[in-house]
Amino acid sequence: MRFRVAISRRAGLRDPEGVATLRAVRDLGYGTVAEVHFGRIITIDIEGEDPTSARDSVVEMCERLLANPVIEDYTVELVE
Amino acid sequence: MTVAVVVFPGSNCEHDVVHALGLLGTNAELVWHREDDLGGADGVILPGGFAHGDYLRTGAIARFSPVMEEVARLAAAARPVLGICNGFQILCEAGLLPGALVANRDLRFICRPVHLRIESTASVLTSAATVGDVLRIPLNSYEGNYIAPETTLRELEGAGGVVLRYATADGEPTPEANPNGSTNAIAGITNAAGNVAGLMPHPERAAEPILGSDAGLVLLESFVTSLAPVAS
């Protein structure tokens, strides 16, 4: 089964890539864009584990390694 | 007194650190990151570079190297632990220092000397310096922009945990003097006990006149002085 992990900078914390891209998007004429945030998508395939414990493992990976709990939030989604 | 200088795959300032410590008469040994023994070192320095290619996040993979358990043990035993540039990022990822370092405000790699004002001498990085003194030291990083949640920042500032701030040559922390957008112009911090410290600029690159400056020596002297056993 495949999980998709989406990691993003926690709201309210500085995101220099997001700010630079927001400026560029507005320069292109999309004046209604209020915010742009960058993140990271990580795809993880797991075999031989039941979906609940597999999801628990992915969440644990996020807490321990994939995300920085000090400055990032994440979501875990079972995609197939 | 011996200092362990940890080498990760991608570290590139370890020899500079060993050389600079040698100028101060301190013996330093390189220790590969897979080691789980620091050889009885009295203190440890995590040098600059790009450990594990900075993949995932700077320091994110390095913090799980076997040697990091020993680094944490020394930190808990009140021994001096210093992270320079990438080493600072690793200490933050390891939770030995608060906050995190993210991309520079202007999304540019910065490689030039900057001015730093000594904010506190209560750390292994600044004990031999004087509050208010200004040092000119090279900065060499893309991810040197310090950020932390509001509560963490308040605690850090309240406890005197900020030891170095970017400033003008006169010691004024103006927005223009902040090269990378670091929150509160933070360039270096320490933990509550003062024995674990990290900074983004490179004191070892300003350690002798032939390098253009020896302004960084006072920071390394502070570290070396802190290696002496605490009198009980």
Describe the protein's architecture and organization.
The complex is a heterodimer of chains A (80) and B (232). Chain A is an alpha+beta fold and 80 residues long. Chain A has one domain (2-78): 2-Layer Sandwich (Mth169, Chain: A). Chain A contains 2 helices and 3 strands. Chain A has helices at residues 16-27, 51-66; strands at residues 2-9, 39-45, 72-78. In chain A, strands 2-1-3 form a 3-stranded antiparallel β-sheet, covered by helices on one side. Chain B has 232 residues and is of the alpha/beta class. Chain B has one domain: 3-Layer(aba) Sandwich (Rossmann fold), CATH 3.40.50. Helix content of chain B is 20%, strand content 25%. In chain B, the strands form 2 sheets. Chain B has a 9-stranded mixed β-sheet, with helices on both faces. A two-stranded antiparallel ribbon of chain B has the order 5-8. At the A-B interface, α1 of A face loops of B.
Q: Summed up, what is this model?
A:
Chain A is α+β, with helices and mostly antiparallel strands and 80 residues long. Chain A contains two helices and three strands, in the order βαβαβ. Chain A has one domain: Mth169, Chain: A (2-Layer Sandwich).
Helical coverage of chain B, percent range: 10-25%
- On the 0 to 100 scale, the average pLDDT of chain A is 95
Q: Any idea what the CATH superfamily of chain B is called? A: Class I glutamine amidotransferase (GATase) domain
Oligomerization state: heterodimer
The CATH topology of chain A corresponds to Mth169, Chain: A
Provide the succession of SSEs of chain B: EHEEHEHEEEEHEEEH
What topology does this entry show?
The complex is a heterodimer of chains A (80) and B (232).
Chain A: E1 2-9, H1 16-27, E2 39-45, H2 51-66, E3 72-78
Antiparallel strand pairs in A: 1-2, 1-3
Chain B: E1 2-7, H1 14-23, E2 27-32, E3 43-46, H2 67-76, E4 81-84, H3 86-93, E5 100-102, E6 110-118, E7 134-141, E8 145-147, H4 150-158, E9 162-167, E10 186-190, E11 196-199, H5 217-225
Parallel strand pairs in B: 1-2, 1-3, 3-4, 4-11
Antiparallel strand pairs in B: 5-8, 6-7, 6-9, 9-10, 10-11
